[in-house]
Amino acid sequence: MNYKIGEYVIYNGLEVCKIGENVIREFDGEKLEYMTLYPTDINTTIYIPAEKCGSLLRPMLSREELLRIIDMIPDISEQGRDSNIDFAEAVKSGDHKSILAVMSSIYARGQKRAKDGKTLFKTDRRNFDIAKKIIHNEIAYSFGIKPSDAEKFISDRIEEKKMKK
User: Fold this and answer.
1) Does residue 11 contact residue 37 with C-beta atoms inside 8 Å?
2) What is the pTM (predicted TM-score) of this model?
3) Per residue in 134-144, pLDDT tens?
4) Suppose 34 and one of 27, 47, 55, 59 were both cysteines; which one would form an S-S bond, judging by CB atoms 3.0 to 4.6 Å apart?
């Protein structure tokens, strides 16, 4: 896929980035073309080989697509309780429905463990936080809000939909 300078994309399934210019870099005597990316939440520059853009980048979802995904959350929450979806695969695929199912599954496990007086496994907590960051960052950027406000945005949308039913 051809990306344009200034366009926003998702890098490696995790980061919202602005596309910069293509540059030629030389490493070990070999010249390669790289695309520069500027993450929106940290002050750094990422260089990725131009030939790997197809596997490392994906377009941002539209606002309409994100709203449809938010509207699916109550259904995913019910379905995902028994789900054992592989976290890495869900993130790599960029499929928000799978990512939400993973979050729901981890949340359900955490609830069950809490009833038994136990805490969530560190790996589950880390995976849940990463999944939450993925969803919140894309929503925040697309709707012009802070990532910390994305959870309220999602909750408000779900409540609004419930009231209309």
Assistant:
1) yes
2) 0.78
3) 889 999 999 99
4) 47
